Amino acid sequence: MNAKAKSTSSSSKVHKADVLVIGGGLAGGTLSLALAQGGFEVATIDREDMAGWTDRGFDGRASAIALSSQRVLEGVGIWNVIHRETAPMLDIRVSDGHSPLFLHYDHEELADRGGAADPFGYMVENRSIRKALNVLVPKTERLTYFAPNEVVELERAKDGVHAVLKDGTEVSADLVVACEGRRSPTRDQAGIKLTKWDYHQAGIVCTVEHERPHDFCAQEHFLPSGPFAILPLPGTDEKPACRSSIVWTERADIWPIIMKLGDDDFLEELEVRFGDYLGEIEIIGPRFAYPFSLQFAETYIKERLALVADSAHGMHPIAGQGLNMGLRDVAALAEVLVEARRTGQDIGALSVLEKYERWRRFDNNLMLGVTDALVKLFSNDVEPVMLARDLGMAAVNQLPDLKRFFMRHAMGTVGELPRLMRGEAL
Ligand SMILES: Cc1cc2nc3c(=O)[nH]c(=O)nc-3n(C[C@H](O)[C@H](O)[C@H](O)COP(=O)(O)OP(=O)(O)OC[C@H]3O[C@@H](n4cnc5c(N)ncnc54)[C@H](O)[C@@H]3O)c2cc1C
């Protein structure tokens, strides 16, 4: 991939690091940059060839990045590389089936005393973040990527961590951080139990081009099978705001049938849900399906081990919060570790890692609970429940203080924010 990224080699010398990060994806890559910039020697392992991933392995996903998460990406340098590939979310419109009642968030409503209002956040394709990692990793001192590679042996002892990689390289560190996504072998090997349930739904994900501009408005339309989201992406120079990412939720018995439809039939089904408010639509690129489930680890830490992002918690994307919560973990863990080193503590000690867990676990559990309740409330066509939720949305729309509170939540600027999320240096 690059001079700093080590692919396979036959050398078996020990690479010494302070932190071993397993999984160099969106969360792991951001954490690796933050820690290296914070003065730690970091060794990051990813089983994917990162350079190839951005094109060959495009997974179709785009993420709604809240304003506070954008600040983290800015703090580590990713934003500078990707900002031209992002679209701001200036409005959010939530509607329910065919009900005329809806909820509309306008970022202008949060403008302070006539000043310019920040957007709620930005839409960014996940591959843009990967591409930025490819640009930044070689330039970042103290950071070495081992990719494609995997840990085949991991030993956590009182005095440190020792790993053997697939190519024979050995890595020693004070702390190992698992950022392996939902299926985390490091979490499982540490004996950390996982609670999990299935929503019996999947998100069909694709990208569309449309005739009229989206005006940077994110739409979430609740249909009986689940949410149908139309999320603004940047367009081309000729048609600047005419591309959107679709996350179309369908029940487990329906989504495989839809995925197998021919292109014309698929487009016809999509148009029924999309409507014609943006004119004609055209599907660009492949479609993907992601089964939805909820999961959380019983603990985020063990001696010399921390779990971060999806390895610790996986939620339904109904509120677009999985990566946002993961980036909060990243910012909090980086801050705890920098503080521990500054005060001469062992960064792998349980007493240090407990600060990270106390900071993040409650907040993540709250978000898991909120997203779970939203799924149950909105994937439901029982008359009284539909009426209650429509009246609830209309009420929030009419109550400016409550509405502003929800809007700040959407921006991710509520709660005890780590320094990187406040736009400050580590
Ligand atoms: C349809 C959909 C839409 C979503 N939309 C949003 C959204 O709008 N906003 C939002 O905040 N979140 C959203 N999410 C959630 C978001 O995508 C995830 O929370 C995020 O990708 C988690 O990042 P991660 O780095 O923890 O895991 P991943 O992105 O899964 O990355 C894990 C990395 O670890 C590597 N890896 C795995 N195992 C190993 C191993 N054993 N050894 C070495 N490397 C390994 C993988 O190659 C990969 O690079 C959405 C999710 C879905 C499914």
Give a summary of the structure in a few sentences:
By secondary structure, this protein is α/β, with parallel strands linked by helices. It has helices spanning 26-37, 50-53, 67-76, 78-82, 126-136, 185-189, 255-260, 263-274, 322-342, 350-378, 383-398, 400-411; strands at residues 5-6, 14-16, 19-22, 42-45, 62-66, 86-89, 91-96, 102-106, 121-125, 143-146, 151-157, 160-165, 170-173, 175-178, 194-210, 217-223, 226-233, 243-251, 281-297, 301-302, 305-307, 313-314.
CATH topology annotation of the domain at 5-59 and 72-92 and 125-195 and 295-380 and 416-422: FAD/NAD(P)-binding domain
Helical percent range?
25-40%
Net shape: globular
Identify the strand order in the major beta sheet: 8-7-16-17-18-15-19-22
Structural class assignment: alpha/beta
The number of helical elements comes to 12
Small molecules held by this entry: flavin-adenine dinucleotide
Radius of gyration: 22 Å
**Total number of β-strand segments?**
22
CATH C-level class of the domain at 5-59 and 72-92 and 125-195 and 295-380 and 416-422 is Alpha Beta
What's the average pLDDT? Answer: 90
Task: Set down the secondary structure blueprint.
Blueprint: E1 5-6, E2 14-16, E3 19-22, H1 26-37, E4 42-45, H2 50-53, E5 62-66, H3 67-76, H4 78-82, E6 86-89, E7 91-96, E8 102-106, E9 121-125, H5 126-136, E10 143-146, E11 151-157, E12 160-165, E13 170-173, E14 175-178, H6 185-189, E15 194-210, E16 217-223, E17 226-233, E18 243-251, H7 255-260, H8 263-274, E19 281-297, E20 301-302, E21 305-307, E22 313-314, H9 322-342, H10 350-378, H11 383-398, H12 400-411
Parallel strand pairs: 1-10, 2-13, 3-4, 3-14, 4-10, 7-16, 14-21
Antiparallel strand pairs: 5-9, 6-9, 7-8, 11-12, 12-13, 15-18, 15-19, 16-17, 17-18, 19-22, 20-21
Helix pairs in contact: 1-3, 1-5, 1-9, 9-10
The chain binds flavin-adenine dinucleotide (FAD).
